[in-house]
From TrEMBL, chain A:
This is Lactate utilization protein B/C. It comes from Colwellia psychrerythraea (Vibrio psychroerythus). Residues 52-226 form the LUD domain. SUPFAM superfamilies: NagB/RpiA/CoA transferase-like (SSF100950).
From TrEMBL, chain B:
Residues 465-492 are annotated as: Disordered. The keyword GTP-binding does not apply. InterPro entries: 4Fe4S_Fe-S-bd, 4Fe4S_Fe_S_CS, FTHF_cligase-like_sf, Helical_ferredxn, LUD_dom, LutB/LldF, LutB_C, NagB/RpiA_transferase-like. The keyword Repeat applies. GO terms for biological process: lactate metabolic process. This is Iron-sulfur cluster binding protein. PANTHER family: LACTATE UTILIZATION PROTEIN B. Residues 479-492 have a biased composition (Basic and acidic residues). One of its GO terms (molecular function) is 4 iron, 4 sulfur cluster binding. PROSITE patterns: 4FE4S_FER_1 (PS00198), 4FE4S_FER_2 (PS51379). Keywords: 4Fe-4S, Electron transport, Iron, Iron-sulfur, Metal-binding, Repeat, Transport.
Length: 228, 492
């Protein structure tokens, strides 16, 4: 029953022509200079402290654990947390930025580097990696969101598959809201393969409006907040 | 055209049965209490998400204008989107009908020799009944959103666009799991239920070779597909399998990346009262050389399915502003009482009543626009200010206007027209145009009111028949005025 490849190309080509022709017939002659002005809401300016407080409170409302720490202390914080969770393994990306932290972790922790392609390693990723550590690019105060910017060293699934996600967040990279962040960093010029805004551990309220955490992604999001 | 005529959506039949569906579901007390509870919860959530009326109003106006601008430029933005996506290595396909969309997706899967599909939440794929289509071709298609998973296990359809399993309570879900998942011990603890679902579905994510998702916003300027979700299943479907196919309606395209933040903010707050969803996922490319994960191939299917028909009419075009937040159904007194399945369509509630006639034709959906009290709640909460009650009135008109009247605005125009009703209104209009005729008819009505029948079909099944009064309003006002005049004269 399924059509041949050539067929779907043809189907799509015809559909494209028809759809665009119909739409274009309706907008022909439209004057786009005369569109009404779109006025945004003027949000008040907040101080760094206020933004930080807002960021932390939003994250905590969404069941993320926020730990204020320093770069020097981070290794011991992670080690303690893992111990408390009874986890002995940690997956991390090959990122020079926190190589010192990795080196200083409790020696009992079995360190796993994400230096493999996912293609033949899905079972391992899903079943043998209970926790992961990743960095973040920046964050957003208004909604308590952390911006993940995955790359070759820190793949997309690093922050998704392991049930516990440690993420390093630099308080100096905090923006008031999403709009100002996009503008300041001119995102429209350079979006990578994938960007994710994370605002808590995975959750669902699909059964009788009752919140449950750890639906598919990480059950715990542990935010290591530095440079406060 | 051939697909439209030959292969009607399976939802046409269930939409036609609207009245019977309503009678069935109004009598189901458990269902009604499930909906009541859920709607109260969602209305509360939304209310607490907007602390300032000012902010809400400014944002609504801004987002309405954003969507109107994007629609005004729609064909150009679609071309720009296509160009940028293809430049990023994402293939774009176009489909006029649901069958075309399904054919394309089935073929993409077959090309990759895919056999196991995981799906993130996508209402557009519900619209095309993709699961049925793939299953007929021996491709297993598993829903991975918790709500959708429950609905699929129960062999049902979503009853709400944001919370698909809202019609079920935890006891019903517990029973469903116990009956369908091997080794699951009956429990009504929601955490236990979710962990059970998680276990089953994580296995599937690990094994599936294809991931299918919807799209909340497609950004033309950057060629980016944005997905809003809380569970992480959307990220799983778009990250783990080798092939990712996204499907969306042509109206989801926005011009600039900077259009996204205000729309996103209104979407999550209107839908569930969240400042933002747990994940906001922005996909701009397939896996690049050197990257260790992500799908090797990403495809986008752009579906029309009646949208261009709405686009061609200035008033009905506003339907396409919709960002699918679900607020209109959460606040709808009709939806709350009859539930989501009674509509018989993929999209229930006010948005469903507006959009389904374009997808299924007015023949199958004549009853839907009439299933509204026109109380206006939907229009008041709609984040993009769609005048929903006005559009419903317009659809009522389209469904009773003469079939031959040109231009034909909609498929199925005049499907609800009855010659008796048309005649009654014609006479009514004549009578009201002429003072003599009007006076005569009033004279008759007040004299012969005893002739009014006791039974008036559907109207009197739950009401008593109306009876004309013995005197007309004009007569009574006149009498009153005369009485006043008299007493004034007496006093004077
Ligand atoms: S019509 Fe408005 S309120 Fe209803 S789902 Fe669409 S955007 Fe939301």
């Amino acid at each position: 029953m399924t059509n041949t490849k050539a067929d779907i190309k043809a189907v799509s080509k015809t559909a494209r022509g028809n759809i665009l022709a119909k739409l274009k017939a309706e907008v022909s002659g439209a004057d786009y200079d005369k569109l009404p002005e779109e006025v945004p809401f003027n949000y008040p300016e907040f101080s760094r402290e206020e933004n930080l407080a807002q960021f932390i409170s939003e994250l905590e409302k969404n069941h993320a654990q926020v730990i204020k720490t320093t770069k020097a202390n981070m290794a011991s914080v992670i080690s303690e947390q893992l111990k408390a969770l009874n986890i002995t393994k940690l997956l991390y990306g090959e990122n020079d930025e926190h190589s010192e932290v990795i080196a200083a972790l409790d020696s009992k922790i079995d360190l796993q580097t994400y230096d493999f392609s996912i293609d033949n390693n899905k079972e391992r990723l899903f079943n043998e990696c209970p926790a992961a550590l990743s960095s973040s690019r920046c964050s957003i105060a208004a909604t308590g969101s952390i911006v993940l910017w995955p790359d070759e060293n820190e793949p997309r699934s690093l922050s998704l598959v392991p049930p516990v996600h440690f993420v390093i967040v630099d308080a100096n990279e905090l923006y008031a809201d999403f709009t100002s962040l996009i503008k300041a960093q001119q995102w429209q010029d350079k979006l990578p393969t994938n960007v994710v805004l994370v605002s808590g551990p995975s959750k669902t309220a699909d059964i009788q409006q009752t919140l449950a955490y750890g639906a598919h992604g990480p059950k715990a999001l542990i935010v290591l907040l530095i440079n406060i | 055209m051939k697909h439209i005529i030959e292969e009607e959506s399976k939802y046409a039949a269930s939409a036609k049965a609207f009245r019977a569906n309503v009678a069935r579901d109004l009598g189901n007390e458990e269902l009604r209490s499930n909906f009541r509870g859920a709607m109260d919860y969602l209305m509360d959530k939304r209310k607490s998400a907007f602390s300032s009326e000012d902010e809400l109003e400014v944002l609504r106006e801004q987002c309405k204008l954003i969507k109107q601008r994007c629609l005004a430029k729609l064909p150009h933005l679609l071309e720009q989107l296509e160009g940028n996506l293809e430049r990023n290595g994402i293939k774009v396909h176009w489909a006029e009908t649901i069958t075309e969309a399904n054919e394309i997706i089935a073929q993409l899967i077959a090309d990759k020799k895919g056999s196991s599909v995981v799906k993130g939440k996508s209402m557009v794929s519900e619209e095309t009944a993709l699961n049925d289509y793939l299953e007929e071709r021996n491709v297993e298609c598993l829903e991975s959103d918790m709500g959708e998973y429950i609905v699929q296990l129960a062999k049902e359809h979503p009853s709400h666009i944001i919370m698909p399993a809202i019609h079920q309570n935890k006891k019903q879900v517990a029973k469903l799991f116990a009956d369908n998942i091997e080794g699951f011990e009956y429990s009504t603890d929601v955490d236990t239920l979710i962990q059970q679902g998680r276990e089953v579905l994580r296995n599937k994510f690990c094994q599936a070779d294809v991931g299918i998702s919807g799209v909340n916003f497609a950004v033309a300027e950057t060629g980016t597909l944005c997905l809003v979700e809380n569970e992480g299943n959307g990220r799983m479907c778009t990250t783990i399998p080798d092939l990712h196919i996204a499907i969306t309606g042509i109206e989801k395209v926005v011009e600039h990346l900077s259009d996204v933040p205000p729309l996103l903010s209104l979407l999550t707050r209107s839908a569930t009262g969240q400042a933002i969803s747990t994940y906001f996922n922005m996909i701009s490319s397939a896996r690049k050389p050197g990257e260790k994960d992500g799908p090797q191939e990403v495809h986008l299917v752009l579906l029309d399915n009646g949208r261009s028909q709405a686009f061609a009419d200035e008033e009905l075009k506003q339907t396409l502003q919709c960002i699918r937040c679900g607020a209109c159904m959460n606040h709808c007194p009709v939806y709350t009482r009859i539930g989501g399945h009674a509509y018989g369509t993929v999209y229930p509630g006010p948005i469903g009543k507006m959009v389904s006639p374009h997808m299924l034709g007015l023949e199958a959906t004549t009853n839907l626009p009439t299933a509204s009290t026109l109380c206006g709640a939907c229009g008041e909460v709609c984040p993009v200010k769609i005048p929903i009650p006005k559009i419903l009135l317009r659809l009522r008109q389209e469904s009773v206007k003469p079939k031959s009247q040109q231009p034909e605005v909609m498929k199925g125009q005049g499907a609800g027209r009855s010659s008796v009703e048309a005649l009654i209104w014609k006479v009514w209009a004549q009578v009201h145009k002429s003072p003599t005729m009007y006076a005569l008819s009033m004279w008759g009505l007040t004299r012969f009111r005893f002739l009014m029948p006791k039974k008036l079909g559907g109207w009197t099944s739950v009401r008593t028949a109306p009876k004309p009064a013995a005197t007309t309003l004009h007569q009574r006002v006149k009498a009153k005025q005369e009485k006043a005049k008299q007493s004034q004269q007496e006093r004077g």
